[in-house]
Amino acid sequence: MLPRAAVLAPGASPGPGRRSPPPPAGLEEGQPPRGRAMASGGAESGPHRPEAVGPQAEAAEEPEGGSRRWGAQHAGARELAELYSPGKRLQEWISVILCFSLICFNFYNLLFYLRLEHTPSVIVGIFAGVITADFLSGLFHWGADTWGSVELPIVGKAFIRPFREHHIDPTAITRHDFIETNGDNCFMTLVPLANMAYKFISFSPEALYETCPWECYVFALIIFITMTNQIHKWSHTYFGLPRWVIFLQDWHVILPRKHHRIHHVSPHETYFCITTGWLNYPLEKIRFWRCLENIIQAVTGEKPRADDMKWAQKIK
User: What is the pLDDT of residues 193-228, one digit of tens each?
Assistant: First the structure.
């Protein structure tokens, strides 16, 4: 089954009861089209999505009045960017400093308690941690993309705002510095990192030896969650990436650029996992996100991505 955003041919009517999607926003500024977006880094397997078409797409994105429909000059993008406050910046700085301090402390202690006999279980634990991080990145990404509003108290401006901005100005993330890019993910990992540090301080050496493989799973999960938004930023960066990042993308160890373009075909309703992207195709095949949306809409009456569409349609 093809992902939903790829079903309609350009110019085709979506049929009764479905809205026509706005012009694609998946192609970075200045980036020429490269054929089909692929479901894996370079593999011709999995569902395909059409990419934005260069000059024709840019011409279609100019609404009346000359205001850019997509990108940094979009009215909604400018308004959302202005909501980034000094208080939010302070929270991100504190989160990054605490997070990386705890990571260093916990990593040192993990190495101290690791033994050669732990090797098989540690390998399994690290792989499981990466898979779990990819799923959680998709779940959080789907939730913030699909539900809620920027007007919600506390979480609206702090956590939902960047997701709304990202869909109408996908390259904004490439202009964010390390703190703004990674502050929220660092904040989310503070509690499990602090809990792990507490165990290393208070548990006996025997207990820590027994639980070391489990702690390796948790640590791998935390590391990949912490790095998810940096990996996401790299998937939107087409110039100046280190060779080792490109190597990891090409081998699909982290989210590849071609793979992530599939999500940026409006209305942004699939391929939400942004750590490695390994789970995107199987979750799409079982219609995982569509089923969750149908359940929530049936229970609450709320339409998915209504707030996202509201910001995308701002032209003044």
Answer: 999 999 999 999 999 988 999 999 999 999 999 999
pLDDT at 161: 82
For residue 219, give Cα distances in angstroms to 46, 94, 131, 228. Answer: 31, 20, 13, 14
**272 neighbors 248 (Cβ within 8 angstroms):** no
Q: Which own/partner pairs from 50-54 qualify as long-range (CB within 8 Å, at least 24 positions apart)?
A: 50/6, 50/10, 50/24, 50/265, 51/24, 51/26, 51/27, 51/261, 51/265, 52/23, 52/24, 52/25, 52/26, 52/27, 54/27
User: Could you write out the three-class secondary structure of the chain?
Assistant: CCCHHHCCCCCCCCCCCCCCCCCCCCCCCCCCCCCCECCCCCCCCCCCECCCCHHHHHHHCCCCCCCCCCCCCCHHHHHHHHCCCHHHHHHHHHHHHHHHHHHHHHHHHHHHHCCHHHHHHHHHHHHHHHHHHHHHHHHHHHHHHHCCCCCCCCHHHHHHHHHHHHHHCHHHHHHCCHHHHHHHHHHHCHHHHHHHHHHHHHCCHHHHHHHHHHHHHHHHHHHHHHHHHHHHHHHCCCCCCCHHHHHHHHCCCCCCHHHHHCCCCCCCCCCCCCCCCCCHHHHHHCCHHHHHHHHHHHHHCCCCCHHHHHHHCCCC
Q: Between these two residues, 182 and 152, which has the higher pLDDT value? A: 182
What is the pLDDT of the chain when averaged over all its residues?
78
Comparing 21-35, 69-83, 131-145, 254-268, the range with the smallest average pLDDT is 21-35
Task: Please give the Cα distance from 6 to 61 (Å, whole number).
Answer: 19
Please choose, from the candidates 146, 143, 171, 161, the residue with its C-alpha nearest in 3D space to the C-alpha of residue 268: 146
- Position 299 confidence tier, pLDDT thresholds 50, 70, 90: very high
Question: Tens digits of per-residue pLDDT, 9-64?
Answer: 434 444 444 444 444 444 444 343 333 333 333 333 333 333 443 333 333 333 33
